[in-house]
Protein backbone atom coordinates (compact mmCIF):
# COMPACT_ATOMS: atom_id res chain seq x y z
CA UNK A 1 0.00 0.00 0.00
CA UNK A 2 2.33 2.72 -1.20
CA UNK A 3 -0.57 4.88 -2.33
CA UNK A 4 -0.61 8.45 -1.14
CA UNK A 5 -3.18 9.21 1.53
CA UNK A 6 -5.78 11.96 1.28
CA UNK A 7 -6.42 14.68 3.83
CA UNK A 8 -9.75 16.36 4.47
CA UNK A 9 -11.02 19.01 6.83
CA UNK A 10 -14.20 18.85 8.86
CA UNK A 11 -16.84 16.30 9.73
CA UNK A 12 -18.95 16.71 6.61
CA UNK A 13 -19.41 13.76 4.25
CA UNK A 14 -17.68 11.58 6.82
CA UNK A 15 -19.28 8.36 5.56
CA UNK A 16 -18.45 9.02 1.92
CA UNK A 17 -14.78 9.46 2.71
CA UNK A 18 -14.45 6.31 4.78
CA UNK A 19 -16.46 4.18 2.32
CA UNK A 20 -14.41 5.31 -0.68
CA UNK A 21 -11.22 4.93 1.31
CA UNK A 22 -12.16 1.34 2.15
CA UNK A 23 -12.96 0.51 -1.47
CA UNK A 24 -9.94 2.23 -3.01
CA UNK A 25 -7.48 1.20 -0.29
CA UNK A 26 -6.26 4.79 0.10
CA UNK A 27 -5.75 5.98 3.61
CA UNK A 28 -7.52 9.07 4.83
CA UNK A 29 -6.80 11.68 7.42
CA UNK A 30 -9.67 13.89 8.53
CA UNK A 31 -8.67 16.94 10.56
CA UNK A 32 -10.51 19.70 12.40
CA UNK A 33 -13.56 17.57 13.17
CA UNK A 34 -15.81 20.14 14.87
CA UNK A 35 -12.70 21.72 16.38
CA UNK A 36 -14.49 25.05 16.96
CA UNK A 37 -17.49 23.37 18.61
CA UNK A 38 -18.26 23.56 22.35
CA UNK A 39 -18.29 19.79 22.23
CA UNK A 40 -15.41 19.05 19.83
CA UNK A 41 -14.56 15.85 18.01
CA UNK A 42 -16.41 12.87 16.64
CA UNK A 43 -20.00 12.31 17.70
CA UNK A 44 -21.14 8.98 19.09
CA UNK A 45 -22.92 8.01 15.88
CA UNK A 46 -19.72 8.55 13.89
CA UNK A 47 -17.71 6.48 16.34
CA UNK A 48 -20.35 3.79 16.00
CA UNK A 49 -19.95 3.98 12.21
CA UNK A 50 -16.18 3.49 12.53
CA UNK A 51 -16.78 0.44 14.74
CA UNK A 52 -19.12 -0.98 12.11
CA UNK A 53 -16.45 -0.58 9.40
CA UNK A 54 -14.00 -2.23 11.73
CA UNK A 55 -16.34 -5.22 12.07
CA UNK A 56 -16.71 -5.83 8.32
CA UNK A 57 -13.03 -5.34 7.50
CA UNK A 58 -9.88 -7.13 8.53
CA UNK A 59 -6.71 -5.24 9.42
CA UNK A 60 -8.14 -1.74 9.41
CA UNK A 61 -6.04 0.74 11.40
CA UNK A 62 -7.84 3.62 13.03
CA UNK A 63 -6.20 6.32 15.10
CA UNK A 64 -8.12 9.11 16.77
CA UNK A 65 -6.50 11.83 18.85
CA UNK A 66 -7.66 12.50 22.40
CA UNK A 67 -10.14 15.24 21.65
CA UNK A 68 -11.47 13.28 18.68
CA UNK A 69 -10.80 16.13 16.24
CA UNK A 70 -8.31 14.21 14.07
CA UNK A 71 -8.98 10.80 12.58
CA UNK A 72 -6.53 8.64 10.67
CA UNK A 73 -8.02 5.69 8.81
CA UNK A 74 -6.04 3.04 7.00
CA UNK A 75 -8.41 0.58 5.37
CA UNK A 76 -8.00 -3.18 5.61
CA UNK A 77 -9.56 -5.92 3.50
CA UNK A 78 -13.33 -6.14 3.25
CA UNK A 79 -14.01 -9.38 5.05
CA UNK A 80 -17.77 -9.56 5.54
CA UNK A 81 -19.32 -12.58 7.22
CA UNK A 82 -21.89 -12.45 9.99
CA UNK A 83 -21.92 -9.33 12.14
CA UNK A 84 -24.18 -7.72 14.67
CA UNK A 85 -24.12 -4.01 15.38
CA UNK A 86 -25.87 -1.70 17.82
CA UNK A 87 -26.39 1.45 15.79
CA UNK A 88 -26.31 4.70 17.70
CA UNK A 89 -29.83 6.08 18.22
CA UNK A 90 -28.80 9.60 17.16
CA UNK A 91 -29.05 8.39 13.55
CA UNK A 92 -31.24 5.71 12.05
CA UNK A 93 -30.17 2.27 10.88
CA UNK A 94 -30.42 3.66 7.32
CA UNK A 95 -27.29 5.75 7.95
CA UNK A 96 -25.31 2.57 8.58
CA UNK A 97 -27.16 0.40 6.08
CA UNK A 98 -26.49 2.76 3.17
CA UNK A 99 -22.77 2.31 3.74
CA UNK A 100 -23.06 -1.47 3.99
CA UNK A 101 -25.02 -1.57 0.72
CA UNK A 102 -22.15 0.27 -0.96
CA UNK A 103 -19.52 -2.11 0.42
CA UNK A 104 -21.33 -5.45 0.58
CA UNK A 105 -20.78 -6.77 -2.99
CA UNK A 106 -17.00 -6.43 -2.59
CA UNK A 107 -16.61 -8.45 0.60
CA UNK A 108 -14.67 -11.68 0.85
CA UNK A 109 -17.59 -13.53 2.42
CA UNK A 110 -21.29 -12.80 1.84
CA UNK A 111 -22.44 -10.27 4.40
CA UNK A 112 -25.10 -11.07 6.95
CA UNK A 113 -25.57 -8.04 9.16
CA UNK A 114 -28.00 -7.65 12.02
CA UNK A 115 -28.38 -3.95 12.79
CA UNK A 116 -30.23 -2.73 15.86
CA UNK A 117 -31.46 0.77 16.58
CA UNK A 118 -33.84 3.33 15.09
CA UNK A 119 -35.42 2.01 11.88
CA UNK A 120 -37.28 5.18 10.87
CA UNK A 121 -36.30 8.75 11.62
CA UNK A 122 -36.48 12.15 9.92
CA UNK A 123 -32.81 12.54 8.96
CA UNK A 124 -31.81 9.39 7.07
CA UNK A 125 -33.40 7.15 4.48
CA UNK A 126 -35.50 4.60 6.36
CA UNK A 127 -35.04 0.87 6.07
CA UNK A 128 -38.36 0.61 4.20
CA UNK A 129 -37.10 3.06 1.62
CA UNK A 130 -33.80 1.24 1.06
CA UNK A 131 -35.61 -2.08 0.87
CA UNK A 132 -37.93 -0.75 -1.84
CA UNK A 133 -35.45 1.27 -3.92
CA UNK A 134 -31.83 0.26 -3.27
CA UNK A 135 -32.42 -3.49 -3.66
CA UNK A 136 -33.98 -3.26 -7.17
CA UNK A 137 -31.18 -0.84 -8.11
CA UNK A 138 -28.53 -3.36 -7.03
CA UNK A 139 -30.21 -6.00 -9.18
CA UNK A 140 -29.78 -3.78 -12.23
CA UNK A 141 -26.03 -3.81 -11.62
CA UNK A 142 -26.01 -7.61 -11.49
CA UNK A 143 -25.96 -7.95 -7.72
CA UNK A 144 -28.82 -10.38 -7.25
CA UNK A 145 -29.56 -13.93 -6.21
CA UNK A 146 -31.29 -15.49 -3.24
CA UNK A 147 -29.02 -13.88 -0.69
CA UNK A 148 -29.99 -10.25 -1.33
CA UNK A 149 -32.57 -8.91 1.11
CA UNK A 150 -33.38 -6.39 3.80
CA UNK A 151 -35.70 -7.78 6.42
CA UNK A 152 -37.29 -5.65 9.12
CA UNK A 153 -37.87 -7.90 12.11
CA UNK A 154 -38.62 -5.16 14.65
CA UNK A 155 -39.42 -1.50 14.20
CA UNK A 156 -37.90 1.16 16.39
CA UNK A 157 -38.81 4.83 16.24
CA UNK A 158 -36.65 7.72 17.45
CA UNK A 159 -35.63 8.57 20.15
CA UNK A 160 -35.73 5.16 21.85
CA UNK A 161 -34.93 2.81 18.97
CA UNK A 162 -35.16 -0.89 19.65
CA UNK A 163 -35.66 -1.93 16.03
CA UNK A 164 -33.90 -4.79 14.25
CA UNK A 165 -32.98 -5.15 10.59
CA UNK A 166 -31.31 -8.07 8.87
CA UNK A 167 -29.34 -7.30 5.70
CA UNK A 168 -27.88 -10.12 3.62
CA UNK A 169 -25.99 -9.65 0.39
CA UNK A 170 -24.06 -11.98 -1.94
CA UNK A 171 -20.56 -11.08 -3.16
CA UNK A 172 -19.73 -10.29 -6.77
CA UNK A 173 -16.44 -10.39 -8.59
CA UNK A 174 -17.34 -7.51 -10.87
CA UNK A 175 -20.20 -5.07 -11.30
CA UNK A 176 -21.83 -4.95 -14.68
CA UNK A 177 -22.13 -1.64 -16.53
CA UNK A 178 -25.62 -0.22 -17.01
CA UNK A 179 -27.53 1.85 -19.54
CA UNK A 180 -30.40 3.44 -17.66
CA UNK A 181 -31.57 6.25 -19.89
CA UNK A 182 -35.34 5.73 -20.21
CA UNK A 183 -37.18 6.09 -16.90
CA UNK A 184 -40.58 5.31 -18.45
CA UNK A 185 -44.02 6.35 -17.25
CA UNK A 186 -45.31 5.66 -13.76
CA UNK A 187 -47.45 2.51 -13.74
CA UNK A 188 -48.23 2.00 -10.09
CA UNK A 189 -47.70 3.33 -6.60
CA UNK A 190 -47.00 1.14 -3.62
CA UNK A 191 -46.32 2.07 -0.04
CA UNK A 192 -46.21 1.13 3.59
CA UNK A 193 -47.93 3.03 6.36
CA UNK A 194 -46.61 1.89 9.70
CA UNK A 195 -47.58 2.68 13.26
CA UNK A 196 -46.00 1.49 16.49
CA UNK A 197 -47.21 2.04 20.04
CA UNK A 198 -50.06 4.22 18.81
CA UNK A 199 -53.59 3.31 17.71
CA UNK A 200 -53.56 0.99 14.66
CA UNK A 201 -56.17 3.33 13.19
CA UNK A 202 -53.37 5.88 12.58
CA UNK A 203 -52.02 3.87 9.66
CA UNK A 204 -55.45 3.73 8.00
CA UNK A 205 -55.87 7.47 8.38
CA UNK A 206 -52.49 8.03 6.71
CA UNK A 207 -53.46 5.73 3.82
CA UNK A 208 -56.78 7.48 3.19
CA UNK A 209 -55.23 10.95 3.11
CA UNK A 210 -52.35 9.90 0.82
CA UNK A 211 -54.81 8.23 -1.56
CA UNK A 212 -56.98 11.34 -1.66
CA UNK A 213 -54.13 13.10 -3.49
CA UNK A 214 -52.61 10.27 -5.52
CA UNK A 215 -55.94 8.90 -6.81
CA UNK A 216 -56.27 12.02 -8.94
CA UNK A 217 -53.34 10.80 -11.07
CA UNK A 218 -53.31 7.02 -11.18
CA UNK A 219 -55.72 4.25 -10.16
CA UNK A 220 -53.21 1.51 -9.30
CA UNK A 221 -52.32 2.41 -5.72
CA UNK A 222 -51.86 0.00 -2.87
CA UNK A 223 -50.52 1.07 0.50
CA UNK A 224 -49.88 -1.65 3.04
CA UNK A 225 -50.56 -0.98 6.69
CA UNK A 226 -48.00 -2.37 9.05
CA UNK A 227 -48.82 -2.28 12.73
CA UNK A 228 -46.20 -4.00 14.86
CA UNK A 229 -47.18 -5.07 18.35
CA UNK A 230 -45.48 -5.96 21.60
CA UNK A 231 -41.76 -6.65 21.56
CA UNK A 232 -41.51 -5.93 17.84
CA UNK A 233 -42.65 -2.35 18.18
CA UNK A 234 -39.47 -0.94 19.71
CA UNK A 235 -39.29 1.57 22.53
CA UNK A 236 -40.95 4.74 21.25
CA UNK A 237 -44.33 5.58 19.72
CA UNK A 238 -44.61 6.95 16.20
CA UNK A 239 -46.01 6.46 12.72
CA UNK A 240 -44.96 7.19 9.17
CA UNK A 241 -45.39 6.48 5.50
CA UNK A 242 -43.10 5.34 2.71
CA UNK A 243 -44.35 5.71 -0.87
CA UNK A 244 -42.80 4.14 -3.96
CA UNK A 245 -43.73 5.00 -7.54
CA UNK A 246 -42.75 2.29 -10.01
CA UNK A 247 -42.36 2.98 -13.73
CA UNK A 248 -42.87 0.70 -16.73
CA UNK A 249 -39.12 0.22 -17.03
CA UNK A 250 -38.69 -0.88 -13.43
CA UNK A 251 -37.43 2.41 -12.03
CA UNK A 252 -38.42 3.20 -8.46
CA UNK A 253 -38.94 6.70 -7.10
CA UNK A 254 -39.56 7.12 -3.42
CA UNK A 255 -40.73 9.51 -0.74
CA UNK A 256 -41.24 9.19 2.99
CA UNK A 257 -42.32 11.00 6.11
CA UNK A 258 -42.14 10.19 9.80
CA UNK A 259 -43.99 11.69 12.74
CA UNK A 260 -41.99 13.88 15.12
CA UNK A 261 -40.16 11.88 17.81
CA UNK A 262 -41.87 11.68 21.19
CA UNK A 263 -41.33 14.89 23.13
CA UNK A 264 -39.77 16.81 20.21
CA UNK A 265 -41.75 19.38 18.27
CA UNK A 266 -45.52 19.44 17.96
CA UNK A 267 -47.55 16.37 17.13
CA UNK A 268 -48.43 16.00 13.48
CA UNK A 269 -51.80 14.66 12.38
CA UNK A 270 -51.70 11.44 10.36
CA UNK A 271 -53.88 13.14 7.70
CA UNK A 272 -51.34 15.92 7.23
CA UNK A 273 -48.48 13.41 7.16
CA UNK A 274 -50.18 11.36 4.44
CA UNK A 275 -50.92 14.41 2.29
CA UNK A 276 -47.42 15.87 2.70
CA UNK A 277 -45.79 12.58 1.85
CA UNK A 278 -47.91 12.23 -1.29
CA UNK A 279 -46.80 15.72 -2.33
CA UNK A 280 -43.15 14.83 -1.73
CA UNK A 281 -43.64 11.79 -3.97
CA UNK A 282 -45.12 13.99 -6.70
CA UNK A 283 -42.11 16.30 -6.33
CA UNK A 284 -39.81 13.28 -6.73
CA UNK A 285 -41.72 12.19 -9.85
CA UNK A 286 -41.33 15.73 -11.20
CA UNK A 287 -37.56 15.52 -10.66
CA UNK A 288 -37.67 12.14 -12.38
CA UNK A 289 -34.68 10.22 -13.66
CA UNK A 290 -33.89 6.52 -13.45
CA UNK A 291 -32.76 6.68 -9.82
CA UNK A 292 -34.45 8.69 -7.09
CA UNK A 293 -32.55 11.35 -5.18
CA UNK A 294 -31.91 9.11 -2.16
CA UNK A 295 -29.97 6.56 -4.21
CA UNK A 296 -28.09 8.78 -6.67
CA UNK A 297 -24.75 8.29 -4.98
CA UNK A 298 -25.19 4.50 -4.79
CA UNK A 299 -25.84 4.31 -8.54
CA UNK A 300 -22.87 6.55 -9.32
CA UNK A 301 -20.60 4.48 -7.09
CA UNK A 302 -21.57 1.23 -8.81
CA UNK A 303 -21.06 2.91 -12.19
CA UNK A 304 -17.58 4.02 -11.12
CA UNK A 305 -16.64 0.54 -9.94
CA UNK A 306 -18.12 -1.22 -12.97
CA UNK A 307 -16.16 -3.10 -15.61
CA UNK A 308 -14.14 -1.00 -18.02
CA UNK A 309 -17.07 -0.15 -20.18
CA UNK A 310 -19.39 2.81 -20.60
CA UNK A 311 -22.22 3.26 -18.11
CA UNK A 312 -25.00 5.78 -18.62
CA UNK A 313 -27.68 6.87 -16.19
CA UNK A 314 -30.30 9.57 -16.46
CA UNK A 315 -30.80 11.31 -13.12
CA UNK A 316 -33.04 14.07 -11.89
CA UNK A 317 -31.37 17.25 -10.56
CA UNK A 318 -28.31 16.26 -8.52
CA UNK A 319 -28.61 16.67 -4.77
CA UNK A 320 -25.81 18.56 -2.95
CA UNK A 321 -24.78 15.27 -1.32
CA UNK A 322 -24.38 13.65 -4.75
CA UNK A 323 -22.35 16.57 -6.08
CA UNK A 324 -19.90 16.22 -3.20
CA UNK A 325 -19.84 12.46 -3.76
CA UNK A 326 -18.74 13.01 -7.38
CA UNK A 327 -15.84 15.14 -6.13
CA UNK A 328 -14.82 12.39 -3.75
CA UNK A 329 -15.01 9.77 -6.51
CA UNK A 330 -12.61 11.95 -8.49
CA UNK A 331 -10.26 12.12 -5.48
CA UNK A 332 -10.24 8.41 -4.71
CA UNK A 333 -10.69 6.76 -8.11
CA UNK A 334 -9.64 9.54 -10.55
CA UNK A 335 -12.87 8.96 -12.44
CA UNK A 336 -14.74 11.89 -13.91
CA UNK A 337 -18.29 11.76 -15.18
CA UNK A 338 -19.50 13.39 -18.35
CA UNK A 339 -22.50 15.45 -17.30
CA UNK A 340 -25.07 16.56 -19.88
CA UNK A 341 -28.12 18.56 -18.86
CA UNK A 342 -31.26 17.47 -20.68
CA UNK A 343 -34.07 19.99 -20.91
CA UNK A 344 -37.56 18.43 -20.94
CA UNK A 345 -39.43 18.72 -24.25
CA UNK A 346 -42.22 21.25 -24.38
CA UNK A 347 -44.83 18.85 -25.76
CA UNK A 348 -43.97 16.02 -23.39
CA UNK A 349 -44.13 18.03 -20.15
CA UNK A 350 -41.78 15.67 -18.39
CA UNK A 351 -41.00 17.65 -15.25
CA UNK A 352 -37.64 19.03 -14.15
CA UNK A 353 -34.28 19.18 -15.91
CA UNK A 354 -32.57 15.81 -16.17
CA UNK A 355 -28.87 15.07 -16.07
CA UNK A 356 -27.31 12.33 -18.17
CA UNK A 357 -24.30 10.92 -16.33
CA UNK A 358 -21.76 8.93 -18.36
CA UNK A 359 -18.54 7.32 -17.20
CA UNK A 360 -16.17 4.49 -17.98
CA UNK A 361 -15.92 2.08 -15.06
CA UNK A 362 -12.66 1.70 -13.17
CA UNK A 363 -12.71 -2.05 -13.79
CA UNK A 364 -12.74 -2.68 -10.06
CA UNK A 365 -12.60 -6.37 -9.20
CA UNK A 366 -13.20 -8.02 -5.89
CA UNK A 367 -9.69 -9.23 -5.09
CA UNK A 368 -10.77 -11.78 -2.51
CA UNK A 369 -13.18 -13.50 -4.89
CA UNK A 370 -11.04 -15.97 -6.78
CA UNK A 371 -12.04 -17.35 -10.14
CA UNK A 372 -13.57 -20.75 -9.58
Automatic annotation (TrEMBL):
UniProt xrefs under Gene3D superfamilies: RNA 3'-terminal phosphate cyclase domain, RNA 3'-terminal phosphate cyclase, insert domain
Which residue ranges does UniProt annotate as crossing the membrane?
Answer: none
Which superkingdom does the taxonomy of this entry point to?
Eukaryota
Where in or outside the cell is it found?
Nucleus, Nucleolus
Record keywords, A-Z? Nucleus, Ribosome biogenesis
Q: Name one GO molecular function term.
A: RNA endonuclease activity
Record-stated family:
Belongs to the RNA 3'-terminal cyclase family. Type 2 subfamily.
Name this protein carries in UniProt: RNA 3'-terminal phosphate cyclase-like protein
Instruction: State the gene name recorded for this protein.
Output: RCL1
